[in-house]
Fold these 2 entries.
Entry 1:
Amino acid sequence: MYYVSTRDKNARVTAQQAISMGLSRDGGLFAPTEIPRLSKDDITALAGMDYIGRASHILGLYLTDFTAEELNAFANAAYGGGKFDHPAVAPICSLGNNHILELWHGPTSAFKDMALQMLPHLLTASLKKTGEQKTCCILTATSGDTGKAALEGFCDVPGTRIVVFYPENGVSRVQQLQMITQKGENVAVFAVKGNFDDAQTGVKTIFSDVEIREEIASNGYFFSSANSINLGRILPQVIYYVSAYCGLVANGTVKNGDAIDVCVPTGNFGNILAAYYAKKMGVNIGKLICASNSNNVLTDFITTGVYDKRRPFHMTTSPSMDILVSSNLERLLYHLSGEDDVRVSGWMKQLSEEGVYEIPGDMKSALGELFAAGFATDDEAAATIKKVWDEQGYLMDTHTAVAYTVMERYRAATGSTVPAVVASTASPYKFCDSVLAALGEKCGGDGLALVDTLEKVSGLKVPEGLAALKNASIRFETVLEKQDMAKAVVEYLG
Ligand SMILES: *Cc1c(COP(=O)(O)O)cnc(C)c1O
């Protein structure tokens, strides 16, 4: 298997190189040159395995430069040993025809763990195999969930350092506490005065600054990324879509070969891109349903073929989806355009210079065949949380509620009776304030007090990592002006 840059097909690399580099030098993302296939018999075989078995097999199809023993060891280290608080790792809770795929049983209670528990193993092994001598410094800008999941994944991993930047007032109190109490000798966390875009732009600037690169190189470091532009983030996400299908086959909900739909609460388009790869592998996914909040740039793109980021940025109750430039869409454009790297480069240039681009008619139809799209406002998502809790006793977080709302609306509009997998991306405990408000609970206090309130109201067990925040001491209190981010990194790497 080889991987090529979406902006230059001739930039062909192995999986190990793609994972080590994160982003191609030309600014493109690495995409597979072919997508491996699963037969009906393969699905039957996988249906009989546990999550670790499925993970080893699926990664093996993409990561042909690793041995089966290596991948099995990585899968055991990532998903075994009690790291996830559910034996199925990614269990399914069926509510009628909606099958909620719970992706938040990992150490930080958001779906980012599904990939970020695996990425450090893939990355350190790739660095070893490619003969890299320097220490890898992971730079991450986060709107809340990626930061903590990356810190947890890379905590005390030899040969790595990790620096996380979060917007000072842009994350929930629980998310902030998770990050600023992070343990480990190789970690640093900074608040940035500004919003998520400021933090993200700061990180991109550091990445592309040749002087800084040379300065840290002389100290024995190089930068890499734990954001979903890294191939090592996307591939582990393909596993749970295949696994979900196998799980539904194994428990008799669907017959092997029958179709399911998949609905994903979407921000950077990484999660739903993984579902697209699962479909291309041969898992019978009918429609890929892309759910957005009021930042509905993707809803418009999928329905009109015009991507237009020139619109107001909304702060919503599903902050991990507050994004106007979805990086991973570039990989989909590459595949749908018949791997036309020149046209993809053109659209990306137009997007950064003019804020808008439009795909041609044949691509629009292909897009419409594969995808459906919709969005839900904060009020609509809150109403869904309350309705599903009252009627079915199931509590979901705000991001999952966006997807659930869009899924129900899709069914009502199309009359579809196809079973649907709804990706559930965070524990309701991560967004206590919005979830409690949705339930109509009046509550004072913030942060950890709300965790207790939600526990009383819902009767659900508080995830271990969040319960432990009560006794955790704060380690990182520095707040930076955005223009001082580079200086902070250089000083930290000393
Ligand atoms: C990151 C995140 C998303 C968006 O996922 P993408 O892969 O960026 O589309 C949705 N929900 C939650 C809770 C997240 O943390």
Entry 2:
Amino acid sequence: MSMSYEAGAPAPTGFVPLCIPRVRGNEWIYVKECLDTNWISSVGTYVTRFEEEMAAYLGVKRAVAVVNGTAGLHTALLILGVQPDDEVIVPSLTFVAPVNAIRYCGAWPVFMDVQRDTWQMDVGKVADFLEGECKHHNSELINRSTGRRVRALLPVHILGHPVDMDPLIELAQKHNLALIEDATESLGAKYRDLMVGTIGDVAVLSFNGNKLISTGGGGMIVTDDDRLADYARYLTTQAKDDPLEYFHGEIGYNYRLTNVLAALGVAQLEQIEDYIAAKRRIAARYCEGLAGVQGLTLPLQADWALSTFWLYTLLVNEKKYGMDSRALLRALRDRGIQTRPLWHPIHRLKPYRDCQAYKVEVADWLYERGLAIPCSVGLPALDQDRVIEAMIELGRK
Ligand SMILES: *Cc1c(COP(=O)(O)O)cnc(C)c1O
């Protein structure tokens, strides 16, 4: 089976892909309307509709559609005033996008560990770092070891499960830090009774090929703050000051989503409840089928959380299961089943090796053991059973 298989491509027959989009609603109708009416570019009714309907779904005041989640994160950091040489707190176990976005601003990541049960950013260690390693100076929080200003917290709700946000809200208020949610992997999840993406000052969503809903590529910045939303719209449309004349008040970006892609987004959003139900049904079936298998740790849902189980990931204990996560990956690949390891902890990657990592241990532990297994919203039960049977058969008897 091809190694280069990516979400968004049709799956070869007999192959069980990791996580691919499902396009079975009004996508064709809405996209055709864009083409028929010539509204294909970055202005159009679908962009506005997608923004309004996402804001209504989440229960936030404003939403600004952008070309992708990474651009959304870059913009979110800019509108919250992250400056060159500021520092931003971020987990080491994440997809690399939020960390790159910090560097696009000329700011620096400070890497935090993740919790052993939820795999989310360890808010206890964040508190220890801010209160033990930083000091207040002229109403700013200064990292003692680097001398730089800590400006923002950037928790990433990974794999469909929320971060424990209450302690972060408290820390952000206490130390005057901006709070940005990277909600790209956990649209539809809840923290207590709050939708993920409605908790921080600003949150960012993604609609790339394997996210819960997909526009092929796309993202959104959401916030309750009109001033921040207006500023995000301004920066993402080249900081254009005049509708006619080419006046630009600062350095802007061409980050707006096109109407054609927004049309896909509107159609996808109509189906979101079904998608979440499908993800949770898949998680429940894995739980039933794999719970008794020695050496596999299944993902949990904290009692204060509603997880979408967006990317169903489990841990493989080499001694108890009989092979490690990478050997299992290869064995499943030989059977036409696509899986994927967790992200390499970012503080060990070449561009980030010299950045500060605060007592990161669990991220490495999870990285060795984690394996994401097939969980497309359209995954047929028979294919899922094939995955379950293969994993039972490959394990230690
Ligand atoms: C997918 C993702 C993003 C954004 O990705 P884009 O492809 O730029 O939309 C950002 N952060 C995390 C953690 C992600 O998984």
